[in-house]
Amino acid sequence: MYRLFFDLIFKRMDPEKAHHLAFAWIRAAARVPVLRTFVAAVLAPRHKALRTEALGLRMHGPFGLAAGFDKNASAIDGMTMLGFDHVEIGTVTAQPQPGNPKKRLFRLVADRALVNRMGFNNDGSEAVAARLAARKAALGEKHSRTTVGVNIGKTKIVPEAEAVADYVTSTERLAAHADYLVVNVSSPNTPGLRNLQATEALRPLLAAVREAADRTVTSRRVPLLVKIAPDLADEDVDAVADLAVELGLDGIIATNTTIARDGLGLTTPKRTVEAIGAGGLSGAPLKARSLEVLSRLYARVGDRITLVGVGGIETADDAWERILAGATLVQGYSAFIYEGPFWCRKLHRGLAERLAASPYATLADAVGAETRKKAAA
């Protein structure tokens, strides 16, 4: 039914307008308690076998919403209603910014992919912090039922030399409201941002964010992760892995979108791809490289830090493959556009079936099993 609706309605709309329309519907449904309870009962069944512990947090399962969909923390409960086990909001910058000029979001339907050059359009860390605080006050203890990650990035107009202070400002405002915090240095849509992935720039940045989080939140330790690009050379992936272990980071998210266009032009006409121009490619074409980066990271760090697999995850098979490669948590975004509101339900059911048919007693036992097997061969 959703695919018919997508073909008749959403496919004919500008992608960003369609996103805002769907977003409005989700938020509206979540505001009505009876409707929210009914939708959650239908779309978010919980499988006890999938219960997950990661980053010192307990979650209903391993599958979460990647950053980019809910930039301003305005639909956390709506996305939980649809079945996501955790919701990562953002990317949030210290200063509010409109993002890049429109048109800036494009569908490649034949490739089940998206290209975006949104440019961190968001309300800014002060406004988002106030929204998260208001939600917590309204829900009381119930707010803890949803794991909320907060993804922070650099304000576009801030020079690269002042990036650390910019991230620290966001950390000071948002850390208290985050179940975990993510430093995004891998979006291709903010000039100079990816330069921060180099270890000589990344080390002081992560150290400063860690210190700011610890100074701001004294009642607990806020887990800190870094999100990296799939376009890093293998030796740079290794360097980030080593740095994460050295600094005592809690996790790495692999991966963000890619600037590569490998494989496109076979189903989507090459002239269409060229006409879209710059931006980060997400969805199915990213699957192979994201898996490679994840496997390489796990081979390097093992169980010392938590790995989050994202990029091209569409099915339960994709999610299961990432878990076997080393991911404790997995995330999706682009496939949600094509699969619709029943996506989480299908993925959860499929994961539970694959776990039941496997030799592993728990999901934790399955994490990294395939990568370890290859290393031992």
UniProtKB/TrEMBL annotation:
* EC code(s) of this entry: 1.3.5.2
Catalytic residue list: S187
Main localization is membrane
- Report the co-factor binding details: Binds 1 FMN per subunit.
Cite the Dihydroorotate dehydrogenase catalytic domain residue spans from the record.
50-355
Q: Tell me which residues bind FMN.
A: A67, G68, F69, D70, K71, T91, N151, N184, K227, T255, G283, G312, Y333, S334
Q: Where in the cell is it found?
A: Cell membrane; Membrane
Database matches in PROSITE patterns? DHODEHASE_2
- Residues at which substrate binds: K71, N116, R117, M118, G119, F120, N184, N189, N256, T257
Catalytic reaction list: (S)-dihydroorotate + a quinone = orotate + a quinol
Q: What cofactor does its activity depend on?
A: FMN
Under the heading PANTHER family, the entry gives:
DIHYDROOROTATE DEHYDROGENASE (QUINONE), MITOCHONDRIAL, DIHYDROOROTATE DEHYDROGENASE (QUINONE), MITOCHONDRIAL-RELATED
Q: Which HAMAP family match?
A: DHO_dh_type2
What function is annotated for this protein? Answer: Catalyzes the conversion of dihydroorotate to orotate with quinone as electron acceptor.
**Subunit arrangement?**
Monomer.
Stated name of the protein: Dihydroorotate dehydrogenase (quinone)
Upper classification of the organism: Bacteria, Bacillati, Actinomycetota, Actinomycetes, Kitasatosporales
